[in-house]
Every structure is written in structure tokens, then in C-alpha cells.
């Protein structure tokens, strides 16, 4: 028996301004997630994703939550979660740009039912005349560790 919960989060731009990763495990469970923000000029973008899976006497359960937000001119964000038959895939993207100044963040999270959780967040911000500031944060956890 497998149960799956899908949750979407909408995040405010007030969230953490820096990459973050978290993971935990015990027994037959695995959890993990990443998140990050980018900011330049009057733009900012934040995304995060987290998931978990657990196997016990009553079956296997998995969940995934992802979300993002952007602020500034031409700001947009989107999030989606798909059930694959073997688990859950989630992705959030947020981006804002203003005359060549931009910030963007993207988080991808995968949950494999009863097996593992993986998450990755990439961020980038740029102002004309300077080098882009980039960051990547990854985490992974499995029920067998």
C-alpha cells in the first residue's frame, strides 16, 4: 500500500536570503530539502523544496512540497509537482529582471517511494558590468543509510 501527499507552498520574498540544505533520517525513512535566494538591485527570487518518504508496517508514504516567490520588475514564479508512479518530482522557478539586472532561483526535488529524497537549488544574480553571482546547493538521503 502506497500513499502520496502533494503540497504546494507559496512563499513570500521575506524568506531566507542564502542557500540552505537540510536532511534527516531514521529507521526506514528519509527526508531532505534545499532552498535559496538571489538578489540584485531591486530584484529578488527565492525557491525551496522539501520531501520525505517512510516505510513501515502499514505501508509506504511520501510527500513533497515546493514553492517560490520573486519581487521586482517583471517578476514571475511557478511551481509544479508530478506523481511518477515511483514517487514525486517537484520543481519551482522564480525570476525577476529590471533593465539587465536580474535574479533567479530554481529548486528541483525528487522523492522515490520508500527509497530516497534528493534536492538541488541553483541561484544566480547579475548586474551589468559585474560578474554573475551563482550558487548551487544539493542534498540527498536514502532509507538504507
Question: Could you please describe the fold and organization of this structure?
Answer:
- With 145 residues, the protein is mostly beta strands.
- The chain has one domain.
- It is built from no helices and 10 strands.
- Strands 1-5-4-3-2 form a 5-stranded mixed sheet, with no helix packed on it. Strands 6-7-8-9-10 form a 5-stranded antiparallel sheet, with no helix packed on it.
- The radius of gyration is 16 Å and the shape is elongated.
Layout of secondary structure:
Elements: E1 2-8, E2 20-26, E3 29-40, E4 43-56, E5 59-71, E6 76-83, E7 87-98, E8 101-112, E9 116-126, E10 133-142
Parallel strand pairs: 1-5
Antiparallel strand pairs: 2-3, 3-4, 4-5, 6-7, 7-8, 8-9, 9-10
Helical percentage: under 10%
Gross geometry: elongated
Unreliable residue runs: 1-20
Strand content: over 45%
Describe the structure concisely:
The protein is mainly beta and 145 residues long. The protein contains no helices and ten strands.
Kindly list the characteristics that best describe this protein.
10 strands, single chain, disordered N terminus, five-stranded antiparallel sheet, 0% helix, five-stranded mixed sheet, elongated, 145 residues
Amino acid at each position: 500500500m502506497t500513499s502520496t501527499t502533494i503540497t504546494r507552498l507559496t512563499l513570500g520574498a521575506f524568506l531566507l536570503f542564502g542557500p540552505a540544505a537540510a536532511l534527516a533520517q531514521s529507521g526506514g525513512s528519509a527526508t531532505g530539502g534545499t532552498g535559496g535566494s538571489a538578489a540584485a538591485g531591486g530584484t529578488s527570487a527565492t525557491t525551496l523544496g522539501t520531501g520525505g518518504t517512510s516505510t513501515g508496517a502499514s505501508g509506504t508514504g511520501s510527500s513533497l512540497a515546493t514553492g517560490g516567490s520573486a519581487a521586482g520588475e517583471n517578476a514571475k514564479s511557478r511551481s509544479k509537482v508530478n506523481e511518477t508512479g515511483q514517487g514525486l518530482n517537484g520543481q519551482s522557478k522564480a525570476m525577476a529582471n529590471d533593465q539587465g539586472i536580474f535574479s533567479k532561483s530554481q529548486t528541483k526535488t525528487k522523492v522515490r517511494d520508500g527509497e530516497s529524497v534528493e534536492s538541488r537549488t541553483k541561484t544566480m544574480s547579475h548586474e551589468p558590468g559585474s560578474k554573475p553571482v551563482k550558487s548551487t546547493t544539493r542534498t540527498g538521503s536514502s532509507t538504507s543509510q
